[in-house]
Predict the 3D structure of the following.
Amino acid sequence: MSVGIWGIGSYVPENRVTNDDLAQRMDTSDEWIKSRTGIEARHLADDSEATSDLAYMAALRALENAQIDAQEIDLILVATVTPDQPFPTVANALQHRLGATKAASMDVSAACAGFMYAVITGSQFVQTEVYKHVLVIGVEKLSKIIDWEDRTTAVLFGDGAGAVVLGPVAEGRGILSFELGSDGSGGKYLSQQGAHLQMNGREVFKFAVRQMGESAVNVLKKAGLTKEDVDFLIPHQANIRIMEAARERLQLPEEKMSKTIHMYGNTSAASIPLSLDYELQQGKVKDGDLLVMVGFGGGLTWGAIALRWGK
Ligand code: ACO
């Protein structure tokens, strides 16, 4: 059984914060942030919007796009490291709020690679025909764990959500191959200590440059494909320089890589579905296109998927 994406939706909070806005509250500049990261703005949720609210909006849009009712969802997986609280999970809250009366639900925690992990986990149930429809959401409200006194991390992150409905698709469509990995020895480089996120940016940078390209090449090989077959690369949006390194490894022209980091910053588990939804809306991804999605994050964790778009 082939498994693919039936529908997709995304959501970012209304409040858009530019680099200049941040420069008014900390010692930084638009020039520094843009040249080092590619970020120009990010959307931040306020106290009135919880992680589950962002996830709910993206989920509604994905269900509508997939043209299925919440009652047809068998499983809800939410990838996040910023849940409303440790439990009940965001997935639990959504199950009730969406009226997904027959759905099982759980959160998946793999930092910025969380969406890749959740999609692959969900797809196993569809592939084995245990379940038919799985709702997968990547969502973060990183603003609540950012240390706003630490300019080295505060400028990098944003809030948002992206959701997909997985279901059976025609042979040759959907997920063709995947790779998931982790290296717990790198836990010290990116973690939440107490209330705040802490990062050794340089170490994460080195790891990410190596891993993104490597994983992208690996999934192509597993699917029996080559770099020349790739129509669109959707990398985790953490830093434009890391993304460019992955693009160069695949020898793709600029227009074949999704870039939303300038608008949203790093939204962790939400960044890949947010970007995919954006590119679909721009008409950049077409039926039959070969997509490579690749993410990395704290843990360290990583994941990549080669997917033929369409049902
Ligand atoms: N504004 C102005 N200056 C700053 C800022 C800022 N916001 N932040 C740091 N600086 C200064 C530093 O203090 C340093 O000054 P110094 O030379 O006087 O000491 C200088 O800028 C250079 O700092 P570096 O840390 O060396 O800058 P670098 O070029 O390495 O860029 C960055 C830092 C953007 C964090 C980069 O290392 C990076 O992107 N790393 C990867 C991060 C990443 O991908 N994280 C997400 C992982 S996904 C997840 O799971 C959440």
Summary: The first helix runs from residue 19 to 23. The mean pLDDT is 97. The two ends are 12 Å apart (CA to CA). Residues 19 and 30 are 5 Å apart (CA to CA).
